[in-house]
């Protein structure tokens, strides 16, 4: 569902707000309100100041909702890395490691998206499921098929999600049945970009998408980087996901470069609008390049564990000053919910602490850290921090309403539970049943 908001009304939610700021990983605002109009946040304050705020509006211009004590409002979740084309086999095919997994499962499935009927069915179900789980913004990989990728954009537009969408580019070291030549790849990417921009939908952004250096020649990557620079577009790809992949890319396919990061850097792929998935084995020297270029990482812990690729030390990434968000990486990651990504990020960090040479000093990330990674940090990773990620005046109202008191809730609340306990229980135990309303740009796009 997509319900248009009345542009003449100011909409207000009163109760508990939970979000992140630059200085606080989780800020809980009790007895507060957030007001938005035409999709933009107008005011945030204590409920005692609400009456004074509303005096500037006539009675028919006000729409005030008082949240129940069991409810709280938080920013929409931001998935910085997800393959929409892989959703159809999510939860299966997790018996292999990355390179074999790509050859046996991924490339054959993705090649089937040349069938537009299949693509429409698969993408419709993917977007609906992702949105239902509270992801208001997603950074999608599609396939090499331009028309199918445009169909994905149509579906995203229909359901009202905010998204980056990328037509995948592959011209090198790829199956004969699933590959392009350089000229076709560039021409089709240009067609895709022009078609998306012609929609004039501010919620959908084309993202330049070289699959990874293992499937792209240097010539193609340089030309894609040039196209991104010409159009001022974001870029997404993969880097340093598994040891076998690094060996193949750096020693066999692109020898002569200092490291994996240097390959992309020399191609012009690393910009302040670039988000790279994984980065599990990046050295501190490589992270310095990411910081200098303003490029970001998408931490995908479920996928990294499921494909036995490794564990990113996200604490070290943060300590190096590199932007980082969370990604589900469907279907290497077997769950489309960002709550799962949050939980896996926390557990992965605890594993690193257990095996750290100095565990008493190493600081694993906690649920508050992971909450920020899934919201404000995700917005920063995608270069959208001025638009979304938390509740600030002038930002878009992308939000989800959470309720612990729903029929068949997956967790229980007790009288001893504090507000912080209830929030933490949702993060660790909640699911889409607890997400009762979902807003994108002030529009109610999903409601239970």
Structural write-up:
The protein is an alpha/beta fold and 448 residues long. Helix content is 36%, strand content 22%. It has helices at residues 50-54, 98-111, 116-132, 146-159, 182-198, 218-231, 243-253, 260-267, 284-293, 301-306, 314-319, 338-354, 367-373, 376-381, 419-429; strands at 10-19, 27-37, 40-46, 62-66, 71-75, 77-83, 135-141, 162-166, 168-169, 204-206, 209-210, 235-239, 274-278, 296-299, 323-326, 399-403, 435-440, 443-447. A four-stranded mixed sheet has the order 3-2-1-4. The radius of gyration is 22 Å and the shape is globular.
| Beta fraction | 15-25%
This entry's quaternary arrangement is single chain
Number of helices: 15
Number of strands: 18
Side by side, the strands of the main sheet go: 3-2-1-4
Distance between the termini: 10 Å
Runs in which pLDDT lies below 50 for 5 or more consecutive residues are none
Roughly what percent helix? 25-40%
Largest β-sheet summary = 4 strands, mixed
Secondary-structure-derived class: alpha/beta
Shape: globular
Write down the overall mean pLDDT: 97
The Rg value, from CA coordinates, equals 22 Å
């Amino acid at each position: 569902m997509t319900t248009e908001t009345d542009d003449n009304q100011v909409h207000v939610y009163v109760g508990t707000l939970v979000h992140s700021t630059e200085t606080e990983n989780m800020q809980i605002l009790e007895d507060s309100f957030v007001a938005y109009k035409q999709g933009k946040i107008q005011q945030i304050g204590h409920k005692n100041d609400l009456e004074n705020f509303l005096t500037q509006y006539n009675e028919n211009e006000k729409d005030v909702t008082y949240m129940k004590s069991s409810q709280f409002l938080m920013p929409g979740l931001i998935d910085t890395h997800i393959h929409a084309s892989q959703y159809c086999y999510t939860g299966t095919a997790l018996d292999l490691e990355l390179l074999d997994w790509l050859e046996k499962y991924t490339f054959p499935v993705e090649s089937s998206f040349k069938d537009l009927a299949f693509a429409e069915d698969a993408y419709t179900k993917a977007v609906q499921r992702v949105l239902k789980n509270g992801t208001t913004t997603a950074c999608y990989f599609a396939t090499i098929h331009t028309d199918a990728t445009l169909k994905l954009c149509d579906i995203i537009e229909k359901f009202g999600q905010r998204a980056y969408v990328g037509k995948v580019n592959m011209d090198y070291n790829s199956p004969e049945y699933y590959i392009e030549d350089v000229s076709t790849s560039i021409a089709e990417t240009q067609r895709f970009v022009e078609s998306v921009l012609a929609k004039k939908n501010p919620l959908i952004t084309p993202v330049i998408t070289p699959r990874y250096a293992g499937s792209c020649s240097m010539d193609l990557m340089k030309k894609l980087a040039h196209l991104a620079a010409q159009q001022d577009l974001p870029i997404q790809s993969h880097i340093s996901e598994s040891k076998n992949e690094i060996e193949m890319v750096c020693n066999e396919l692109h020898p002569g470069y200092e490291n994996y990061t240097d390959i992309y850097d020399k191609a012009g792929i690393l910009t302040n609008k670039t988000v790279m998935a994984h980065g599990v084995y990046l050295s501190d020297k490589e992270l310095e390049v990411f910081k200098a270029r303003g490029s970001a990482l998408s931490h995908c812990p479920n996928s990294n564990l499921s494909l036995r690729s490794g564990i990113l030390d996200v604490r070290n990434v943060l300590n190096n000053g590199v932007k980082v968000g969370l990604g589900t990486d469907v279907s290497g990651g077997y769950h489309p919910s960002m709550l799962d990504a949050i939980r896996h990020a926390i557990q992965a960090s605890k594993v690193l602490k257990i095996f750290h040479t100095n565990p008493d000093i190493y600081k694993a990330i906690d649920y508050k850290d992971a909450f920020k990674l899934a919201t404000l940090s995700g917005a920063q990773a995608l270069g959208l921090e001025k638009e979304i990620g938390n509740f600030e005046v002038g930002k878009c109202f992308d939000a989800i309403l959470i309720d612990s008191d729903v029929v068949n809730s997956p967790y229980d609340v007790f009288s001893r539970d504090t507000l912080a306990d209830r929030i933490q229980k949702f993060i660790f135990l909640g699911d889409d049943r607890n997400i009762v309303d979902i807003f994108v740009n002030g529009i109610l796009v999903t409601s239970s």
